Amino acid sequence: MTDPRRVPASPSLLGGASVLYGAIVRLRNALYDRKAIPSVKLPRPVVSVGNITAGGTGKTPMVIHLARFLRERGYRPAVVSRGYGSRGGKAVNVVSDGKTVLLDPERAGDEPYLMARVLDDVPVVTGPKRVDAGRSAIRLFRPDLLLLDDGFQHRRLHRDLDIVLLDEALPFGNGRLLPGGLLREPVEGLSRADLIVLTGPGTGGPAPPEDPRIPRDRPLFHAARKAEGFLRGRDDRSYPLEHLEGKPLYVFSGIGNPSSFQSLLSAIPGTALTCRTFPDHHRYTGGDVERIRKEASAIPGAAIVTTEKDAVRLEKYPDFCEDLYRLRISMVLRAGKEDFEAMVLEKLNP
Prior knowledge:
13-stranded mixed sheet, about 25% strand, Rossmann fold, single chain, 10 helices, globular, alpha/beta
């Protein structure tokens, strides 16, 4: 199967656009590096989780992992996100107050909504201007620190710790900048990272060789996206992975890294996968739902499986959602977990 993240060789027009994009990004970074454009420091520590490529590297599971870890250590974090894909929102939107989810997926954005659902004791605040969203989170909820989701390129807000995730199989996509490739900024931008985490599917196979372009002077860790089990129905009925052993699976997703999701399912013994992929952050329509149902019904005994993030975008079709198995995925540090956690805590307690 061709990995959709491997952008094919770009024609001259895309190549020219990538050169222009790169020049703009380098100039912007230089202005921030020289303090010609100032960053805003908030009165709470800010921990950013980001990447340098477009597409899925596991940012949402990592933010959830960090929020839970910090809560266990007695901290009161709040999550700040841009709210990509949200509609009809305000300049600042409170998705969750740490007790109740206050916005639907359309107004919150799928990832903030999912984090609000999973982190029922952590406030989630969104806004296109993360400085304003962070200030509001501090004023409303008095957190000890802010977790900035997808913040590596958002240099307007000062960060006390920058965690950058790279996909271990394709850390830099095809090596080209947007729009001819997947890089959001040049690889040398990794020099700003405090911690680098290579993420993989966690299926037990050997990790690919590390890319030589990854800086060796940055602490480097490896993490795996782990399949925890399935949820089904409006009441979140829980099923172990073994529940679908030996069954044909109709698998669909609209995420940045569908191959990683599919590999987690293919590791379940005896499963046969039929896969359909949609663009990242795809807004599902009634026609999509009918197509999925039709294609799945043509496979005798097939279970329909998707991600939790995709299921969020399908809540407007409750009857269809009742039939879906949603794979719950977590982030697990493979080795050096104690060192990683100690480095995070050290930045919060200098």
